[in-house]
């Protein structure tokens, strides 16, 4: 029993400092984070960055701001550093706030807020410089597309930091692109996204947009309208008469063609169109119907993809119903 207590005490003796050390460490950490705080800064190249060193419960300790090379930018409200791009925004017992104008890539790094307490405290503000990409550029492999063909487009956003992301929209539908990120010699990123899809005739006239997302830019996009060629679709509409076609009446037919045909053409199958028929664009107008005009009237539309037609069978009835 006595031996057991002895072991227990030895055990405690060994453990004691081990238990204490982490407790002290945790307290030290919380003191630092409670008294001196700052924030990381993201800034677009050429714009202004603001670094704020804030002190809670200050006991009149001296505060200073150091650059990444640990040179003093501000010591209290005095600026030993010659760079006039650094300006004092606020100096109070709770805050040292400094602005840096016309930020360039070389200003990047870890800035240090330092408080002369015992022990001294430090807090770090990382300045990250953002460089916007150049205007996005869309390139299409095919200028004119055909229904059912696969086409390919690429969009490039050059020279940004960090890398931009590219999103594709066809009309109001998002399509998945394949991005490729390249790091250029000057440590900028160029992103190229490739989009491939099968064209349908509904895509004709629809815009494809390449939308660039980057923290330094807003609403950055380029777009291209699709031009799709497809075999025409033809439909004959009877404008007049609404009822039976009788001798002596007039007939008016309209040919509606979709798919950008080179033109529409009226013919009569195995016969000639009556000589007094008037054809204007897609309209066929025949006055004073005669039984001899009976037959099949055909509207034909064609383009480089193909040809299509629709038929109307004219059947001229006598003036008096049977
Ligand atoms: C400077 O800081 C003090 C204390 O936080 C605040 O009362 C004051 O409004 C600040 N001045 C400016 C110009 O921000
Ligand atoms: C901003 O800095 C660049 C170099 O980094 C310099 O060429 C340019 O003149 C500066 N612009 C202003 C307004 O100070
Ligand atoms: C497009 O599709 C047609 C057949 O529909 C084919 O003949 C042609 O080669 C295709 N063109 C391309 C560029 O794929
Ligand atoms: C119909 O046409 C024929 C020959 O083209 C002509 O002889 C006849 O008089 C016409 N009938 C009417 C009602 O116009
Ligand atoms: C035209 O159709 C009418 C309607 O039945 C018919 O009576 C007439 O004989 C037809 N005329 C010709 C030339 O086919």
Automatic annotation (TrEMBL):
Pfam families per the UniProt record, alphabetical: C2-set_2 (PF08205), Ig_3 (PF13927), V-set (PF07686)
One of the GO biological process terms: homophilic cell adhesion via plasma membrane adhesion molecules
Tagged with keyword Membrane: yes
Major localisation: membrane
Membrane protein topology class: Single-pass membrane protein
GO molecular function: signaling receptor binding
InterPro entries: CD80_C2-set (IPR013162), Ig-like_dom (IPR007110), Ig-like_dom_sf (IPR036179), Ig-like_fold (IPR013783), Ig_sub (IPR003599), Ig_sub2 (IPR003598), Ig_V-set (IPR013106)
Signal peptide annotation: 1-20
Ig-like domain span: 22-128, 132-227, 232-315
Keyword tags: Disulfide bond, Immunoglobulin domain, Membrane, Repeat, Signal, Transmembrane, Transmembrane helix
Compartment(s) where it occurs, according to its Swiss-Prot or TrEMBL record: Membrane
Gene Ontology cellular-component annotations: neuron projection; plasma membrane; synapse
PANTHER family, per database record: CELL ADHESION MOLECULE 1, IG-LIKE DOMAIN-CONTAINING PROTEIN
Protein name: Cell adhesion molecule 1
Species for this entry: Merluccius polli
Organism phylogeny: Eukaryota, Metazoa, Chordata, Craniata, Vertebrata
Gene: Cadm1_0
């Amino acid at each position: 029993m006595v031996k057991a207590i002895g072991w227990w005490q030895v055990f405690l003796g060994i453990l004691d400092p081990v238990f204490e050390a982490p407790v002290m460490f945790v307290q030290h950490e919380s003191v630092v984070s409670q008294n001196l705080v700052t924030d990381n800064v993201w800034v677009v190249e050429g714009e202004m960055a603001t670094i704020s060193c804030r002190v809670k419960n200050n006991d009149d300790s001296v505060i200073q701001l150091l650059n990444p090379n640990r040179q003093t930018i501000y010591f209290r409200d005095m600026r030993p550093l010659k760079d006039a791009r650094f300006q004092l925004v606020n100096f109070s017992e709770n805050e040292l706030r400094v602005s840096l104008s016309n930020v360039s890539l070389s200003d990047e790094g870890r800035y240090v807020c330092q408080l002369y307490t015992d022990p001294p405290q430090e807090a770090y503000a990382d300045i990250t410089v953002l460089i916007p990409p150049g205007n996005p550029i869309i390139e299409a492999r095919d200028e004119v597309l055909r229904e059912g063909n696969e086409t390919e487009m690429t969009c490039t956003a050059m020279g940004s930091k960090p890398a931009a992301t590219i999103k594709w929209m066809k009309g109001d539908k998002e399509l998945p692109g394949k991005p490729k990120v390249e790091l250029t010699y000057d440590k900028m990123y160029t992103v190229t996204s490739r989009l491939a899809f099968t064209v349908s005739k509904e895509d004709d006239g629809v815009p494809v947009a390449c939308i660039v997302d980057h923290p330094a830019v807003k609403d950055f996009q380029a777009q291209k309208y699709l031009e799709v060629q497809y075999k025409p679709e033809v439909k004959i509409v009877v404008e007049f008469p609404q009822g039976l076609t009788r001798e002596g009446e007039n007939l008016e037919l309209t040919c509606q063609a979709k798919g950008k045909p080179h033109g529409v053409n009226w013919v009569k199958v195995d016969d000639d169109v009556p000589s007094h028929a008037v054809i204007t664009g897609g309209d066929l107008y025949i006055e004073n119907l005669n039984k001899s005009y009976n037959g099949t009237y055909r509207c034909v539309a064609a383009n480089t993809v193909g040809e299509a037609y629709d038929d109307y069978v004219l059947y001229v009835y006598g003036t008096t119903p049977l």
